[in-house]
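Colleagues,

For the teaching module next term, I've prepared a clean inverse folding example: a structure given as tokens, and then the sequence designed for it. I'd like students to try predicting residues themselves before seeing the answer, so please don't circulate the second half yet.
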């Protein structure tokens, strides 16, 4: 049975401990289901619109897997889903989830414009932002349902690694399309 949330009487350290608690198998089954649902929608959309190109490559994938775990997966999940696990007044969690989802999507064009400028064109592409919205929604649901960040981190990480290792991700970042 998935965790139902956090104890609103807990202190910050308990909240932090719970956010990084390893979930049980039922939570992981639900996370896999969410990932499959996301994939069933995002992959055909991406292939149809040309945002994804089936281009499997293992070249340099190991360092990508390691780096992608920390950034963007862990870092973005702590920033954009972590606040959902803080104690909040009743009824505010969904409002907070919507705001954080909006900020997650908005983060990508800002990141592409000011930090990762080689990804600027991609990170402002509405097709990419639609998929980012879907990923953010799935990660939000996973976090709210589990009470832990780990399912969202794993989903986010698998999506980024799949994109870079299977669907031509690096060429979109270098502009060699």
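(Answer key — instructors only)
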């Amino acid at each position: 049975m998935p965790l139902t949330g956090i104890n609103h009487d807990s202190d910050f350290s308990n909240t932090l401990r719970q956010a990084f608690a390893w979930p049980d198998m039922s939570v992981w089954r639900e996370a896999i289901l969410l990932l499959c649902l996301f994939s069933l929608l995002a992959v055909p959309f991406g292939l149809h619109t040309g945002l994804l190109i089936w281009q499997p490559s293992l070249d340099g994938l190991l360092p990508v897997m390691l780096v992608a775990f920390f950034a963007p997966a862990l870092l973005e999940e702590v920033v954009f889903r972590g606040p959902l696990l803080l104690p909040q007044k009743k009824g505010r969690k969904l409002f907070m989830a919507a705001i954080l989802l909006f900020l997650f999507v908005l983060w990508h064009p800002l990141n592409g414009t000011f930090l990762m400028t080689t990804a600027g064109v991609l990170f402002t592409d509405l097709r990419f932002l639609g998929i980012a919205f879907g990923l953010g929604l799935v990660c939000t649901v996973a976090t709210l349902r589990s009470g832990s960040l780990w399912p969202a981190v794993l989903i986010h990480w698998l999506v980024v690694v799949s994109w870079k290792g299977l669907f031509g991700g690096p060429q979109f970042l270098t502009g060699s399309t």
